[in-house]
Amino acid sequence: MKTLDVRVHPSSENLPASEQLAYTIAQVAADPVAVTDEVVEMVINRVIDNASVATASLARGPIIAARAQAQAHPYAPGSTVFGVDGRYSPEWAAWANGVAVRELDYHDTFLAAEYSHPGDNIPPILAVAQHTQKSGHDLVRGIATGYEIQIDLVKAISLHAHKIDHVAHLGPSAAAGIGTLLGLDVETIFQSIGQALHTTTATRQSRKGEISTWKAYAPAFAGKMAVEAVDRAMRGQTSPTPIYEGEDGVIAWMLDGPTAQYDVTLPAPGEAKRAILDSYTKEHSAEYQAQAWIDLARKLHNQHAVANDDDIVSIVIHTSHHTHYVIGSGANDPQKYDPLASRETLDHSVPFIFAVAYQDGEWNHERSYSRERATRPDTVALWNKITTQEDAEWTRRYHSNDPAEKAFGGRVEITLKDGTRIVDEIAVADAHPLGARPFERADYIKKFRTLAAHALDEAEIERFLDVAQRLPSLSAAELGGLTVTARPGFFDGITAPKGLF
Questions:
Q1: Do residues 246 and 22 make contact, with C-beta atoms less than 8 angstroms apart?
Q2: Which residues form the MmgE/PrpD N-terminal domain (predicted)?
Q3: Which phi and psi (to 5°) does residue 486 adopt?
Q4: pLDDT, tens digit, for every residue of 265-283?
């Protein structure tokens, strides 16, 4: 690996392109290095994972709207859209599929200085691959780059510390992945990365307070912008430069300011892109830092269930800074305790999630979020007894660079009226690579079959799994099969909302 010293440069220094972060990322993307077998297998896993959660979302409101927008833009050769037949303009297919993948907050994650769902790279890269009639081998290479760049940026540069939404790392990574897929030259990829970053920086109000449907749209928008940025760059159009290091650039005015300095580590020339192996998927439909707490709550339900929740005085979750302030009581968002809050808000409320998982001993992507479940009086009473506190040691472990030490959990203390205290802790979710039951290929396949059963015929489920597991050898024609079509009648009674087109 090589480390680039990234800082703000005044215009008078005229920083050469070759020394800019965006250009270095482009060089990594243009490197023809082979993808390792281990990475290929994980790419297949994540393609299946994305399809699982996208299929589970097909009848949900944001996906219905996004799909209708894509269907208003038929195109040839074009790209596929989950759930329906036909081919559509690639940027709109990336948009619709990106919303479907993100809607349930149920796919892969990587957390470091910033947080991310690197599987968000797959919809735009896949859409361009289908439209340009590339092979499965080409797609694997593009996806490996998308994961590598986003994860490397997430390790080095915090966005949320400055209230910038994390998709600002996704625009550049998706553009880089598309560049690899298409075999573009360094200069073209460089220009597309700059445009993608410039158009995808936004505040993180999308994940604060009453969280709206835009939470699912934000990464899809970044993917759509990446497709359009590559298109413009291929036509010879240029981008703001230096986009990161300029005196009026992203770092100077959106991040740590004119005196900032970041060490960004990227693969050296000829070095394989392996970052996807550092990421981890979700067993449960909830924000990643709630995964371990769902597992611990299920364990406590089975081992230390209290006969009457009225006997519980308080539940205090001691955890990392990020968990406390983003999905815990440290956010100071009253909506996190509101039984009438949106689903998007509830999946970012660890007090709600812990209460339901503790009472039920399970977590379901539909039942656990239902209005009836969230408003149940005994649940609301328990929910309001749950708070979070930052613990310095769990914060340190959250930011550790040692994979064996890095943790996303904490310690829970349940105090009963008779003075009894139930104390337990968990470091990582059960499905994490270091967890009690790490996800393997069979688990990804089970997740797809489970989540797709309501929408797809059995033959379609098996067809998709066959195509996905042959990904590296797929021809351009076969790559069009890397989608799903809902069973006849599934969309009956569903009316798409009307817009401009």
A1: no
A2: 19-261
A3: -65, 155
A4: 999 999 999 999 999 999 9
Tell me which of 258, 278, 298 is where a domain ends: 278
At 228, the amino acid letter reads: E
> Would you say residue 266 lies in a domain?
yes
Boundaries of domain holding 389:
288-426
Count CB neighbours of 342 within 10 A: 16
Q: DSSP assignment of 397-434, as one string?
A: HHT-S-TTT--S-EEEEEEETTS-EEEEEESS-TTSTT
* CB neighbour class for 310 (10 Å; exposed up to 12, middle 13-18, buried from 19): exposed
Q: Give the DSSP letter of residue 342.
A: -
Tokens linked to 200 = 């995808």
pLDDT in tens, 320-338: 999 999 999 999 999 999 9
CATH number, domain of 266, equals 1.10.4100.10
Strand partners, 129: none
- Same-domain pairing of 214 and 258: yes
Residue in this structure with the two tokens 């599987």, named with its chain if needed = 119
Q: Which helix (H) or strand (E) holds 314?
A: strand 312-319
CATH number, domain of 401, equals 3.30.1330.120
Q: Residue-wise over 413-451: b if at least 16 C-beta within 10 A, else e?
A: ebbeeeeeeeeeebbbbbbbeebeeebeeebbbebbeeb
Pairing outcome for strands 2-7 and 261-266: antiparallel
The pTM of the full predicted model, rounded to 2 decimals, is 0.94
Residue identified by tokens 């009848």 is 59
